[in-house]
Each structure stands twice: as structure tokens, then as C-alpha cells.
Amino acid sequence: MKKNILVLTGSPRVRGNSDLLADAFIKGASEAGHEVMKYEAGKKNIMGCKACDTCYSKGKPCSFDDDFNRVVPLIEKAEMIVFVTPLYWFTFPAQLKAVIDKLYALIMGEKELKIKESMLLVCGEDDKEAAFGGIIGTYEQIADYQKWTDRGQLIVPGVLNKGDIVSTKYLPIAEEMGRNI
Q1: Rounded distance, CA 102 to CA 115, Å?
Q2: 78 phi/psi in degrees, rounded to 5
Q3: Are β-strands 117-123 and 80-86 bridged in parallel, bridged antiparallel, or unpaired?
């Protein structure tokens, strides 16, 4: 069954490890016949939520005009959301976290999302998978709160320098995860 999949990336680094991870997943999902949209949150200007509770009061999701308002149509179209990101201080990078925080606007605007499934693909410098506990726990809480079915997690330790992931087993795994949705 064909799905609309939104891949939200968190890295500002062009062709970095998580970007390559996202592309591998997208390749597999596209080959399986899914419609895949990639939104590079790490390269956008997205402010944190100001908790002003004026969501949708000015005809747009967030009263403050930043790139979050441009990702909302993609979020509304998606049936599945995939977070692909580097690990920053044991959690999501600020730009991607800002998108997640601003999902609050959709709740305030009483927008019914089509998203029913989610995935997390994360890579980082630390060799110990325990270092990924913060982002995994946050992701699992988000998925549970939103009532999304977790379709899988891929944790990639030990990659720091641009391209390190190429010499690991993880790009083919990400591609296969995309193909098997």
C-alpha cells in the first residue's frame, strides 16, 4: 500500500552522515512505490515555540513567520513521519526539535493529522549505544503521545566525520527499512 512519507532531517551539514542515511532510506521507500518528501529542518530558520497560544490566529499555523509554516503542508499530507538526524547532546538538534515543539500549533488548531506511523534513524560520534538513550526515549514518548506506531529505529554509533557512515553496514540497512515499509 502506497504511503505519503515525510522524512524530517536534522543536520545542517550537506552530505553528512545523517543526510546519507536519509537518502538511503528514501531510495528504498521510493523503490517500494511510496511518495517520499524530504524536509531539511537543520538547514531552515525555525524558531522555538514561544507559547503565545496564538496559533492559526493570523491565518497560518504559527503567528511568527518562519520556515515552520512551510513544513506544515508536508506534515498535513504525510501518513508516516521519519526522523533522520545526528545526535546532538544526547537528543535532537535544535532546528529539528523546534519543528517537533511547534507541532503544538497543530494541536491548538485542532488539525487532525494523517500520520499513523513513525521511525527514528539517528547517528552519532559516540561508540556506546547508551549515549542514544535520550533521543530514543524522547522519540518513543512523542510516538506514544501522538499514537503513532513505531515502525523501527536505527541507531548508528561511531560516526563523526563527514562520510564515516559510508564504510559501515548502516546505509544498506536504512535502504532496506525504507523498502520494507
Answers
A1: 16
A2: -70, 145
A3: parallel
Q: Please answer whether residues 115 and 148 qualify as being in contact, where contact means their C-beta atoms are separated by less than 8 angstroms.
A: yes
CA atoms within 13 A on the CB side of 143: 21
Per-residue pLDDT of the chain (181 residues; tens, 9 = 90+): 899 999 999 999 989 999 999 999 999 999 999 999 999 999 999 999 999 999 999 999 999 999 999 999 999 999 999 999 999 999 999 999 999 999 999 999 999 999 999 999 999 999 998 999 999 999 999 999 999 999 999 999 999 999 999 999 999 999 999 999 9
**Nearest one of 178, 154, 176 to 18, comparing CA atoms:** 154
Other CB atoms within 10 Å distance of the CB of residue 180: 11
Amino acid at 90: F
Are 10 and 83 within 8 A, CB to CB?
A: yes
- In the 8-state DSSP scheme, what is residue 49? P
CA of residue 39 relative to chain centroid, distance? 8
Residues found in the chain: 181
At a CB cut-off of 8 Å and minimum separation 6, what does 59 contact? none
